Amino acid sequence: MDDWQWDETLFAGAAPYYRRGRLPYAPGLAAALGATLRWDGTGRLLDVGCGPGVLALRLAHHFRTVVGVDPDAGMIAEAGRLAAEAGVAGKTRWVRARAERLPADLGTFTVVAFAQSFHWMDRDLVAARARDLLRPGGVLLHVSDLKGEPTDPAGPPHPAVPIPAVDALVRRYLGPVRRAGRGLLPGGTPGGESAIYARAGFTGPERLVVPGGQPLVRDVDDAVAGVFSLSSSAPHLFGARRAEFETELRRLLRAASPTGRFAARQPGTDIHIWRRPTSPP
């Protein structure tokens, strides 16, 4: 990512598609975290790069206050709508801001979470800022889908979404190199989070895996939403050809499954738990 720079179009237009298009976190995620960390409903959660609040709303009942921060206006608006729909608007606050410029009035937190968002940030800067926002003894959660699991669907009667064919169609419209906002990301997003969190003064990690594997059934609209929820194929990237692309995408999906149904496998969730020491290192 050395030559790539963040810009505000990274997920432009993706917010309405995100919750429907992305596979959900593993069932039991909130219960497993609550039991492991002994949450009692009195703490404060900060979800950095919260998107439409997928993780924050999943964990909201474990906290007195939940704050979500995201630079995309559409994501913040969608998070507010979903919080009202879930009946937790009174305990949630949604702030449009970059992680590198978190407002000074956020207060301190017992938990700071990065759910598949940390790789988009100036990671050393943001990790240090997260440490400052945590109360002594607080925890940082790095949340992602579990890698290395079988991705094939559980079996008949439905086929899997034809990902290689969908990817080929996206490349035909957007070019052979992965798009990301106004730039290109040929090497993908970076790893190595552990060294960054350690440099920032966190201890750990403790790993918690919440298993998936449950069979899911998706439809054509879910599959289309999945494509438009990605930074590499966000709606704005197609410009005037967006409707043309969606027509071709739906035709491809219908050819792959005349019933309009696809089988998928629920991914597991991988959480690395880092702690802020109770005294300075």
Order of helices and strands: HHEHEHEEHEHEEHEEHHEE
Number of domains: 1
Average the pLDDT over all residues and give the rounded result: 94
First and last CA, distance:
31 Å
Q: Biggest sheet, strands in spatial order? A: 3-2-1-4-5-11-8
Give the fraction of residues assigned to helices: 25-40%
Tally of helical segments: 9
From the alpha-carbon coordinates, what is the Rg to the nearest angstrom? 19 Å
State the CATH class: Alpha Beta
Beta-strand content: 15-25%
Give your account of this protein's structure.
It is a single chain. This protein is α/β, with parallel strands linked by helices and 281 residues long. The protein has a single domain (15-275), classed as 3-Layer(aba) Sandwich (Rossmann fold), CATH 3.40.50. The protein contains nine helices and eleven strands. The protein has helices at 15-21, 29-37, 54-59, 73-86, 123-133, 163-174, 193-199, 220-228, 242-256; strands spanning 43-48, 63-70, 92-96, 109-115, 134-145, 179-180, 183-184, 203-210, 215-219, 261-265, 269-275. Strand 1 (43-48), helix 3 (54-59) and strand 2 form a beta-alpha-beta unit. Helix 1 packs across helix 8. This is Class I SAM-dependent methyltransferase.
